[in-house]
Sulfurtransferase (Ilyobacter polytropus), 279 residues
Amino acid sequence: MKKLVALLMMVTLYAVSVAGGLITPEKLNKIKDKKDVVVLDYRWNKVPEKTIPGAMVVLNKEFSRERDGVKGMVLPKEEFESFMSKMGIENKDTVVIVDDNGMMNATRLWWILNLYGHKGDVFILDGQIMAWEKSGLPMAAPSKPSKTSKYVAKDANPKLVATLEEVKASIEDNQMVVLDARSKLERIKGHIPNSVFIEWKENITKDGKYKSKAELKKLYRDSGITKNLKAIMPHCKSAVRSTQSMFALVEILGYDNVKNYDGSWLEYEAVKAPVKYGM
């Protein structure tokens, strides 16, 4: 009977804490020490002195590559496998990602893990590392991998990444919509014709957490970003901020027609594709 109660409590914990792919500091604190849970603190270029106890720090350079002259592209499958194996992460591990950058770093890794078919659950700490600190939970020096693994990735899922050709096609096809997640200034200086502008910051509150499902639903519905479109293709400069918007659409609103444009503005501008100026 005690084992049954414990099992039901565990199921309830996961059902409540990970709804929408988000997890609270309190719930993360309860599961972070489980052997099949990995916490990754994704920072841009500097390892912090303190983080969540047991968390391993990863830097953006681990996942960013230059391809065909375009910087910031996702790393190849084989390099991803090597990285995950080096970190000791198993295919079925639950991965919780935290960052300090508007959750865009965390969602970039969430996208990569899903792109290469990670079998375990992938969650984002809502409110970033600041939410953990505000909760008064302990901090500690970053951990290092305690083992290695033999991680096996799948080929990149074409349903999760948009191509330059698809983005160009959206200019004439109203059922394929490019979502511009950049700043207003960036958009004014040049944007993809027929694209819809919703800056990534619109997805989160002043305290750095995602807005409610109702608020996000209204935000995107009012701009014509709906579930019945053939494809929604978020982009920014190098496909980092765009994943934060993609997470809102996929994990919180339940869309299944969203493809991150990995080449983003760096690729689009480089090939001298059609550009419109102003808002």
Summary: Residues 1-20 have pLDDT under 50 and may be disordered. The domain at 158-270 is CATH 3.40.250.10 (Oxidized Rhodanese; domain 1). The two ends are 62 Å apart (CA to CA).
